[in-house]
Amino acid sequence: MNCTKEELLLYAVTDRSWLHGRTLKEQVKEALDGGVTFLQLREKQIDSELFLQEAQELKELCKQYQVPFVINDDVELALKVDADGVHVGQSDMEAGDVRKKLGKDKIIGVSAQTVEQAVMAEKHGADYLGVGAVFPTSSKDDAQEVDYETLKAICQAVQIPVIAIGGINAQNVDRLKGSGICGVAVISAIFAQEDIKEAAKELKNRTKEVTGI
Questions:
Q1: Catalytic site positions
Q2: Interstrand relation of 128-132 and 183-186 (parallel, antiparallel or unpaired)
Q3: What is the chain's alpha carbon radius of gyration, rounded to the nearest angstrom?
Q4: Where residue 106 sits, what CATH number does that domain have?
Q5: Could you tell me one molecular function GO term of this UniProt entry (predicted)?
Q6: Which of 61, 60, 76 is nearest to 27 (CA)?
Q7: With bands split at pLDDT 50, 70 and 90, how would you rate the model's confidence at 142?
Q8: At 113, phi and psi to the nearest 5?
Q9: Does residue 180 have a known ligand-binding role?
Q10: 59: domain range?
Q11: Is 42 annotated as a binding residue?
Q12: Is 188 marked as binding a ligand?
């Protein structure tokens, strides 16, 4: 396995929606100062040259903090900047195909909504699973919701770490207690907050209580 449960405790996913004239790097640095343990660069509307530059900058920043850095969906870009890995959705690419391209030492995360998808992803070489949306979310218009029982069943069905994603914040994270997750992935709960560092710190402490990690 290429990443530990501890590294997946507080997994931040970037979003340009809340930059308000600041750079993504500045915001990510604040999040890392607040205790983020894993970072995913996710960009949907940005030209490839800027994406490449951003990926290189954030990779270097994460390296300074010794935090794993993965890129959402883009396997070619991950290879180009030598990121720690990628995160892929069900419709992007089979984990097995990604593994062939990236090699055995890189981190591969896969989104899953059902036990069947989770077991298949593990079988094909995924290192961890992102399961959700566990709560309603505005970050993904097409996000299907995954109830607590399904989340728990997924955690029990696989050996690899599972993180919950979707609508999680410091106020509702305790509702995931006992599910078997080792961490949470968030976007707005960190990056939409006025004090990013403080928001990350609070969420990390609450997630520790939930996971016991």
A1: 42, 111, 140
A2: unpaired
A3: 16
A4: 3.20.20.70
A5: thiamine-phosphate diphosphorylase activity
A6: 61
A7: low
A8: -120, -15
A9: no
A10: 6-211
A11: yes
A12: yes
